[in-house]
Amino acid sequence: MTEPRDKNNWAANVERLHVEGVPDGARSDTVEGRRLTGALQGFGQLWQKTYQVPIPGHTPQHVVSTWKAEYGRFWPRTNRFYAPIAGIKPGEVGLIRGSSGPVRLSTGVMVVYADETSFTYMTPEGHPFAGWITFSAESVDGVTRAQALALIRANDPLYELAFMFGGNRQEDRMWQHTLASLAEYLDAPANVTTNRVKVDGRRQWNRFGNIRHNSVLRTMFRRA
Amino acid sequence: MDTTTAFTTRPEGSNVTVIDVVGEITAASEPVLMEAFATAARARAVVLNFTGLDYMNSSGIGLLVTLLIRARRNNQALRACGLSDHYRQILALTRLDEAIAIFETEAAAIAA
User: Fold this and answer.
1) Stretch A158-179: mean pLDDT, rounded?
2) Pairing with B57, which of A24, A122, A128, A222 sits 20 to 30 Å away (CA)?
């Protein structure tokens, strides 16, 4: 049997996350030992959110290699991404510290897929969202277009409430900022478009118990 | 890259439809896969036979989630067979295996 072409693009299956080396200022206690959560394991409504920006004059490969190398640079200042030491490669775990007003959050993501023109993060238990976010670039009519596509649902009822009352827009702003920064870094205008589709309007009440992993609560109690 | 992707449907009895997946599952597969799934709208169970799958990226996983949501909406079961170890690992990694029943053979998936 021939080897699948995507074999080296996917992370190996892991039962629980392990963080290799924690950078100064980062925390791994809300990631270490956690399971990954896909869009089927979360609580809230399922959304597909697409953010796009044209970046003329660069190949999709160059846009994505830049994005991987400088990923955290494009985030808003309120959040910090600690890239994996080995870089954005399948199986690597990145750590995140974020804040929104008085609310602080420590969490992370795992790179589950990466190739020359895309990479995908999956979130751990306790992260605000359960699901995947794929960063990619492709050529459309000869112009490279960068895209972030999230297929996510709030991980637990508290996050779902936050998502309903401002979190949804806040998340939009986060990725709009990211794409705009990427475009500006590559000398392109920051004309970001946003598209939101509710894929599943139902809440998964059997996932109510996800709240026990909530990283905001755990971060808050650990500070107190 | 020159590849051939096809999703052909076969009714198996009155309750089950098999979709043969050949080639790739990527974002570009969406219209064809959804069209194939639409032809199975009356089946109580849809079996995805992945024997001919030779490439899937993370957008492909997103497509499978969308398919699963549609199946749930239609009260249909979604089953899979013909997965190589590699793709079985990917479904485990992404925890899709908790929602899509996986069978060794097509016969077992149809009979379930």
Assistant:
1) 93
2) A128
Instruction: Give me the pLDDT at residue A1, please.
Output: 58
Residue B1 lies in a domain: no
Q: Which residues of B touch A2 (CB under 8 A)?
A: 54
This prediction's pTM: 0.90
Cβ pair A199:B57 closer than 8 A: no
How far is the C-alpha of A153 from the C-alpha of A169, rounded, in Å?
Answer: 14
Give the whole-angstrom CA distance, residue A176 versus residue A74: 10
Is residue B2 pLDDT above 90, yes or no?
no
Cβ neighbours of A134 (radius 10 Å): 22
Number of domains in chain B: 1
ipTM above 0.90, yes or no: no
**In sequence order, which residues have a C-beta less than 8 Å from that of residue A42 and are 6 or more positions away?**
A129, A130, A131, A152, A153, A154, A155, A156, A204, A207, A210
Specify the length of chain B in residues. Answer: 112
**Would you list the DSSP string of B52-71?**
EEEEE-HHHHHHHHHHHHHH
Amino acid at position A135, single letter: F
Q: What range defines the domain where residue B35 resides?
A: 6-111
Cβ pair B37, B70 in contact under 8 A: yes
Residue of chain B nearest A124, judged by CA positions:
B94
Residue A117 — φ and ψ, nearest 5°? Answer: -125, 10
Residues above pLDDT 90, as percent of chain B: 83
Domains of chain A: 7-223 (3.30.530.20)
Q: CB of B50 within 8 A of CB of B21?
A: yes
Which of A13, A46, A134 minimises the CB distance to B89? A13
In the predicted model, is pLDDT for residue A103 greater than 90? no
Name the residue of chain A whose CA is nearest to B61's CA.
Answer: A132
Statement: residue B1 has pLDDT above 90: no
Out of A12, A38, A149, the one facing B95 most closely (by C-beta) is A38
CATH code of B81's domain: 3.30.750.24
Whether residue B29 is predicted with pLDDT greater than 80 in this model: the reply is: yes
